[in-house]
């Protein structure tokens, strides 16, 4: 009997004792380092991405081998399918992105329009120079001077327009030192034409005799 009472008293005493606070688990050195690296990655990743984008843009803008581009687009013409005096209007676009070794890009001189190697119109283009980092549009106005073309050539142009909806023209802009060669597409029905790239080379020989 006494032992039973003593056992119950001990149990009651254990229940009344205050519980000790739980000691938090300490992180190991490896866990602490991993958590620190994770935080650093979270905060530095956006910065690295932004810096990379700006660096790529800078490299592209200062690329010493990034060449200028010259393109041409037909603005309009008169009398494609008839033996009549012709006039052709074009726009030459110059984009000089620049770079560490960039220089001015100039366009100008005598202009000629040919179809299948046959001269159709001529004109004069005022010289325009674009510095590095610049862009410009140069108007090209040519006319046949009141002279028509042979009936066979006019029929060939009209047939190509009916078959493909467009007529390709060769446009040359020449100086004493170099020639700019372009292939301009004249769309049928007055539709707007997409720009076509132009190419430059040093003038050595004009074998077709057209100057």
Give the total of beta strands. Answer: 8
Question: Which structural class matches the secondary elements?
Answer: alpha+beta
Q: Sketch the major β-sheet.
A: 8 strands, antiparallel
Distinct helical segment count? 3
| Strand order in space, largest sheet | 4-3-6-7-8-1-2-5
Can you give the mean pLDDT? Answer: 77
Note the quaternary state here. single chain
Outline of the structure:
The chain is of the alpha+beta class and 211 residues long.
3D architecture notes:
The protein has 211 residues and is an alpha+beta fold. It is built from 3 helices and 8 strands. It has an 8-stranded antiparallel β-sheet, covered by helices on one side. A hairpin with an 8-residue loop joins β7 and β8. The radius of gyration is 39 Å and the shape is elongated. The N and C termini lie far apart (134 Å). The mean pLDDT is 77. This is Late embryogenesis abundant protein LEA-2 subgroup domain-containing protein.
């Amino acid at each position: 009997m006494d032992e039973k009472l003593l056992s119950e008293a001990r149990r009651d005493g254990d229940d009344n004792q205050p519980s000790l606070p739980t000691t938090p688990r300490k992180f190991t050195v490896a866990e602490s380092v991993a958590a620190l690296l994770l935080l650093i990655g979270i905060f530095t990743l956006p910065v690295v991405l932004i810096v990379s984008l700006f660096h790529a843009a800078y490299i592209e803008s200062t690329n010493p081998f990034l060449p200028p581009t010259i393109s041409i687009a037909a603005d309009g013409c008169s009398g494609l399918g008839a033996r009549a005096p012709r006039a052709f209007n074009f726009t030459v676009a110059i984009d000089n992105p620049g770079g560490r070794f960039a220089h001015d890009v100039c366009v100008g001189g005598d202009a000629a329009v040919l179809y299948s190697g046959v001269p159709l119109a001529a004109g004069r283009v005022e010289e325009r120079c674009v510095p590095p980092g610049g862009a410009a549009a140069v108007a090209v106005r040519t006319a046949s001077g009141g002279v028509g073309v042979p009936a066979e050539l006019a029929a060939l142009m009209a047939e190509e327009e009916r078959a493909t909806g467009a007529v390709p023209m060769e446009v040359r802009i020449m100086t004493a030192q170099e020639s700019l060669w372009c292939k301009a597409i004249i769309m049928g029905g007055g539709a707007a034409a997409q720009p076509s790239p132009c190419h430059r080379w040093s003038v050595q020989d004009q074998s077709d005799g057209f100057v």
